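Long-time lurker. I teach an intro course on protein structure, and each term I like to show students one example going from raw sequence to a predicted 3D structure in C-alpha cell notation. This year I'd like something fresh instead of my usual example. Would anyone be willing to generate the C-alpha cells for the chain below so I can use it in lecture? Attribution to the forum is fine with me.
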Amino acid sequence: MIRVLIVDDHAVVRSGLRMLIDAEDDMETVGEAGNVRDAVFEARSTTPDLILMDVVMPGESGLQGMPKLLHEHPDVKVLVLSMQDDPRYVREAFAAGARGYVLKEAADVELVSAIREVARGGRYVHPELGARLVAAEAEAERLAEEDPLSDREREVLRLLALGYTNQEIAAQLFISVRTAETHRAHVMQKLRLGSRAELVRHAIAHGMLEDTDPGKPQSSPAS
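-- Reply from a regular --
Happy to contribute to a lecture. Here you go:
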C-alpha cells in the first residue's frame, strides 16, 4: 500500500483527496495537515510513503517547508498538487526536493497515476506544465548564450573598458580587489576574450560606453 499524507489548508480539498485516494486498492490516506508545521508532526507519527502537498498555505509555503520535511524523512516522496501553473513554481518545487507536480485541475485519473509514478521512485509533471517548462528553459538558455554575463559582470566590463584598474573598480563598486579580479576573469572567460583591446571592442559593439565617465579617459583599443 502507498501511504499518503495530505497537506492542504482547505478541509474540503483534503476530504475530496482522501476519498479519491482511499478508493484505490493500492493506496491509503494515513493523515492530513492544514499547514507545514502540522505536516511535520503528522509525518513523524504516520510515516507516509508520499506527501501530497499544496504550495500556497498560511505560514510557511509548501516550497519553504519541503526541505524540513525531507530532512526528517529522507525516504518520503513529495508530490506537489497546486493551482499555480507558472513554470517557475515547478522549477522551485523540484529544486526544493519534490518528485512531481500536478495541477489541481487535473483529472482524478491523472493524480492517481502521478501518485503511483512518484511512489515507485519516478518523476511526474503535468504534461502542459512540462511543455511550458521546456520552453522556458530553452528561452533562458538562448538568452544566456546571447548575454552570459551577470549584471555585476557587465558593470565590471564597462569600467574595465573605460580604463579603470582593478583597484579603482573595487572602490567604485564597494567590493574587494580580489572580487574585482575574479569578475574580470569571469568576463574574459565567458566572452572568450584574450586582451583589453578585445574587451574594449566588445563593450563598444554592445553600446556599453555610451554613458562614459567624463573624469576618466576611455582606454584605447590598442592599450
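Some talking points for your students: Strands lie at 2-7, 27-33, 50-53, 77-82, 100-103, 124-125. Residues 3 and 48 are 5 Å apart (CA to CA).
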